[in-house]
Amino acid sequence: MVSILSAPEVMEDTILSICIGIGLSAACGFRVFVPLLITSIAARSGHVTLASQFAWVGSDPALIAFGVATALEIAGYYIPWVDHLLDTIATPAAVVAGIIVTGAMLSHVDPLVRWTLAVIAGGGVAGGVQAGTVLTRAASTATTGGLGNPLVATAELGLSVFTSLMAILVPFIAAFLVLVIAIVLGRKLWKRFRPQLQT
């Protein structure tokens, strides 16, 4: 049986979907595959509804692939210097993952609007958060010789899991938290690069 949503219901559903997508995108900035794995589990359990083009995210092969990729990604960030190598790979991967999870959530919008929001909001948020994690790891390496990097990796993993779960369970709060994170990271980046911009 096909359910027909009224215009206000479609608008409410779209706003909710955007909040979920942005929250998951931010989580992709901390860890690329954790949000994809949680999205796959949530889709299979009926907690989220994926756009038809992204139904594959909830499939058995995708669940297995995301599970293996998540385990490898988590392990890699605890190996000295491999974490920096992963950062160079994870930056573009996080943007792609942010686009995928945001696009997957937008089931009741025009494809042009879906992809525009997915690229700008999803990819942008994921890329911004990932840039912040790269700077944090670089600062940790410079100040602790890499000894503090496992703590950074643990914090990033925890934030990725927490943000992903918040995005699915309480999306409006997750979107607010993403806004706060964006402001904090934006201010840090501004303070870091402001002297260079003024010269």
Summary, kept brief:
By secondary structure, the chain is an all-alpha fold.
Sequence-ordered SSE layout with sheet pairings:
Blueprint: H1 7-30, H2 33-45, H3 60-76, H4 82-105, H5 111-144, H6 149-169, H7 171-198
Helix pairs in contact: 1-2, 1-4, 1-5, 1-6, 1-7, 2-3, 2-6, 4-5, 5-6, 5-7, 6-7
Task: Characterise this structure.
The model has no long low-confidence stretch (mean pLDDT 88). The longest helix has 34 residues, at 111-144. The termini are far apart. 38% of the residues are buried. With 199 residues, this protein is an all-alpha fold. Helix content is 81%, strand content 0%. The protein has one domain. It is globular and about 55 Å long.
- What gap, in angstroms, lies between the N and C termini? 64 Å
Strand content: under 5%
Shape: globular
Can you summarize the main beta sheet?
none
Unreliable parts? none
Counting DSSP H or I runs of 4 or more residues, the number of helices is: 7
Total strand segments: 0
Structural class: mainly alpha
What integer is the average pLDDT?
88
User: What gyration radius follows from the Cα positions, in whole Å?
Assistant: 17 Å
Task: Please trace the helix and strand order, writing H or E for each element.
Answer: HHHHHHH
What's the number of domains? 1
What is the helix fraction of residues, given as a range?
A: over 70%
Q: Notable features of this structure?
A:
about 200 residues, single chain, globular, 7 helices, mainly alpha
